[in-house]
Structure formats: structure tokens, C-alpha cells
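Morning F.,

Quick status update on the modeling queue. The single chain you submitted on Monday has been processed. Sequence for confirmation:
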Amino acid sequence: MTDRDVSIPMCPAVLLDRRNGIAVLTLNRPDRANALDGEMALALDAAVDSLTGDVGLRAVLLQARGRHFCAGGDIREFVESIDDLGSRIDGSIPAVHRMIHRLATLPVPVVSALNGPVAGAGIGLALCADLVLAAESMKLRGGYSAIGLTPDAGSSWLLARRAGEARAKEIFFTNEPLSARHCLQFGIVSQVLPDAELDAGARALVTALAKGATGSFARIKVLVDGASHRTLQEHLELEHRYMGEASRSADAREGVTSFAQKRAPVFGSGFR
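C-alpha cells below.
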């Protein structure tokens, strides 16, 4: 992958910039609270799809412009199609779900930076990242049941996985907003930063991750994300296999050698 700026054509609401192995995805509908309409969902799907299989990719940052990270689905679209709401929603969900799964399973670290309120489908978009940074002003609100709908975009799975089933039900039942500090306390976000420091903090993190052992990160994601679906014996066998693969890699040789030489390691592209 060469250093370049890439923007998604036909949809200025989604920006994609790829540089030095880092992809930055930016939600760019600040006038609509970065709500997901049909066009934006398709553009996000195309953007994430373009990252899949990119051997030069080393880290991803998901961010948003304006005062909100993502308000969820675009209620204006719902109102416009109220007489055929089911068909409208059925038609839009596949692209959103495909994008969420692709983003969550990329074999590189994914960081989301939540600059403001998050609700509805925005919860899934925010929490499908490996590490979630939040500004002090961020608030999280379920929102679905308040308009007679149920969660999508993986939001119920991801929130239950981070905060527990009881807490997730409380959030989706009551629709009471949670502050960034409460989200940190409940394990929903990884770190809370002052608003003015969020962008610099997120970029510093993805830059550091992009210099890391990408093959190691990819294996760690598979191990951790699938741990609850394996028996202990199955997991131990996978750990054994992955440790064997990793120990034969150039990154392992570089990591051990640099540690012995008391210098910073220079990792390659891992095993992908």
C-alpha cells in the first residue's frame, strides 16, 4: 500500500484516509449527528471492504466530525418511509451488519474515538473496535425501545460482551444516558480523555499500534474474541499452535533480539 489519501466517491459523509499503514475512517455528517442513512451505510461498507485483504494495513482509526460520534439510524429516513418501515429497515441492515463484522474481524488493531454522544446503531459501530477511547463529553444511550425498535449493528452483542447482560438490558430498557466515566467504570470504553486531547490521544495510540507486531496482534484477536466459544482444551491447543507459528516468525526474532540489545524493535508485516 502506498501513502495516499483515499475518499469514498459519491458520499462525502464517509472519508477514508490511508497513510503509512494506518487507515482513518471518518464519519462526516455533523449536521445530522453522523446518523446512518442508507447511503452512508453503503459507503461505510465499501470503505471497510477496501481494507479487507490489504497486506499493508497495520491499524485502523474510526472517528467522527462534529459534536456527535453517531446518533444511530437516521430517524428522518424512518419518518419518510413510515408506511413501509419494515422493508426500509430490512433493506438497509445487511450492509451495516456486513460492515460491522468485517471491521471487527480485521486482523489488525481497530481503535474508535468517541468524540460525543453515541446511540442506537452507533453503539455497535463504536464497540466493534478493539480499543474504545471516549471524550469526557461522550454519552451512550440505547434509544431503540424508545421508538419501539430493537438493537441492530451488533450493539446488543457487543454491549453485553463488554458490560454484561444485566447492564446491557438496563441500558436498552431504560434509555437513560450513561456518561463517559460510567462507561469506563462498566468496561464499555477503554479510556476517557479530555475532549481537547481525544484526537491526539487516538492518533498516538494507532501510530504506536501500527509499529507493533501485526502478526501477534492478529493472533491475539482470534484468541481473545473466540475464547468464550471454545473449551479450555481447544483454547490451549490453539494457543500452542499460534505460539509455534509466532515463534518461527521474523517478528519474534526481531523482538527477542531487540530486547536483548536494549533497543526498540522494528517489526515487519507479520504472517498475513
